[in-house]
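Hi V.,

You were right to ask for the full record rather than a summary. Here it is.
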Amino acid sequence: MVPEYDFTDGARGKHYISYREGHTVEVHKADGTTDVHYFTLEDGAVMLEPDVRQYFPDSDAVNTALRGLTFPRFCG
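Predicted structure:
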């Protein structure tokens, strides 16, 4: 960030919920056309909260930690 950016009136997490639900990005081109891209989380994707994410640098670290847990078996 450069010092000229002013976030005085910014609100942390303002778009958090809508971003997780999916969001649209419009790219306005110099020739007057607009490209519209819609983004969603991939199937099976999981968002980690920042306080948890600091301990997991990548997907492999998360998977290794989860595989080390003992999951209860449910009888039906």
